[in-house]
């Protein structure tokens, strides 16, 4: 049976929430009997949910500003 988990792949300071935040990847690990490699099926920011609650446009990971990615410089 395959398993999935979220792994932090980058960390950076975010001025929007004034703290370090993580870019996380959702990784699917295949069943042991299959020869497949783990696959990344999605990404998220560790603070995106709380970030969206304050009503301000922020970044690509919050879905409110596709032109700004705080993790692109890391
Ligand atoms: S979603 Fe973007 S703006 Fe919001 S906390 Fe994460 S990196 Fe910062």
Principal-axis shape: elongated
Distance between the termini: 34 Å
- What's the domain count? 1
The major β-sheet equals: 3 strands, antiparallel
What class would the helix/strand composition place it in?
mainly beta
Order of helices and strands: EEEH
Quaternary structure classification: single chain
What are the bound molecules?
Answer: iron/sulfur cluster
Average pLDDT: 94
Q: In what order do the strands lie side by side in the largest sheet?
A: 1-2-3
Q: How many β-strand runs?
A: 3
- The radius of gyration is 15 Å
- Share of helix among residues? under 10%
Portion in beta strands: 35-45%
- The DSSP helix count reads 1
Low-pLDDT segments, ≥5 res = none
Textual characterization of the structure:
The protein has one domain. The model has no long low-confidence stretch (mean pLDDT 94). Helices cover 7% and strands 41% of the residues. The protein has 1 helix and 3 strands. The protein is mainly beta and 74 residues long. The longest helix has 5 residues. A 3-stranded antiparallel sheet has the order 1-2-3, with no helix packed on it. The N and C termini lie far apart (34 Å). Bound molecules: iron/sulfur cluster. Iron/sulfur cluster binds next to helix 1. Iron/sulfur cluster (SF4) binds next to helix 1.
């Amino acid at each position: 049976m395959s398993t999935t988990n979220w792994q932090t792949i980058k960390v950076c300071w975010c001025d929007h929430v004034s703290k370090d935040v993580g870019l996380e990847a959702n990784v699917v690990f295949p069943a042991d009997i299959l020869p497949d490699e783990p696959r990344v099926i999605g990404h998220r920011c560790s603070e995106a949910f709380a970030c969206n609650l304050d009503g301000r446009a922020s970044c690509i990971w919050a879905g409110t500003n596709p032109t700004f990615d705080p993790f692109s410089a890391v």
